Amino acid sequence: MLEIKNINVHFGVIHALKGISFTVNEGEIVTLIGANGAGKTTTLRTISGLKKLTSGNILFEGKDITHASAQERVKLGISQSPEGRRVFSSMTVLENLELGAFLRKDKKKISDDLKMVYEHFPILADRRKQAAGTLSGGEQQMLAIGRALMSRPRLLLLDEPSMGLAPLLVQEIFNIIKNINKTGTTILLVEQNASMALQVADRAYVMETGSIVLSGTGEELMQSEDIKKAYLGG
């Protein structure tokens, strides 16, 4: 579904991504793990069109989207829930969700998808008239994911969905991620909580200083002594 081919990204003189290549197959949950500054968020922003690459190619469902705008990528079926949630705090929950569908014209299906989001996140239905800025951190994270789902993505990019959440909420968010995947949405997940990410992932890539240094199934990396020492507290 998604093919990243030897992409390089620079921030001025800083070489942020150094010729990385990886794939995400349809129906998978694939995770990128690594320390802060490894290049995980930059990778997602490059895929979604928010950061321009220096060289390399991005293919989505066989189409080269390297130079497509962020808006065009949303239309093609790529949507991102950003790091730090970034909800529109003065707008209601419902208005935030409706913004997620701003490129769509199919009003009946938008209504159906709103119901689907409320099924995944019942608390958002209860809070739909509430200003997004008054929600708890966990509720804002649910809203950010729900908003991304409203574009009806085939590939959902999730950036640090568990950041700043209490352990009980982290488990709930990951259960929801698994349920979203089961309904047919492919997921590329960036996550600091390597243990949780590897538990839900079909496959995983480990990033260090802008390079991919290791890959395997989630289970294989969970059992790796190097990964245990570096990321799992083992």
Describe the protein:
The chain has two domains: 159 residues, Rossmann fold; 67 residues, no CATH class. It has ten helices and ten strands. The strands form two sheets. The chain has a six-stranded mixed β-sheet with strand order 6-7-8-3-9-10, with helices on both faces. A four-stranded antiparallel β-sheet has the order 2-1-4-5, covered by helices on one side. With 234 residues, the protein is of the alpha/beta class. It starts with a strand and ends with a helix.
Provide a quick synopsis of the model:
This protein has 234 residues and is α/β, with parallel strands linked by helices.
In the CATH hierarchy, what is the class of the largest domain? Alpha Beta
Task: Report the helical percentage.
Answer: 25-40%
CATH superfamily of the largest domain: P-loop containing nucleotide triphosphate hydrolases
The total strand number stands at 10
Question: What is the fold named in CATH at topology level of the largest domain?
Answer: Rossmann fold
Distance between the termini: 34 Å
* Radius of gyration (Å): 17 Å
Low-confidence stretches: none
Instruction: Count the DSSP helices.
Output: 10
Q: State the major sheet.
A: 6 strands, mixed
Largest sheet, spatial ordering of strands: 6-7-8-3-9-10
Shape: globular
Write the H/E string, N to C: EEEHEEHEHHHHEHEHEEHH
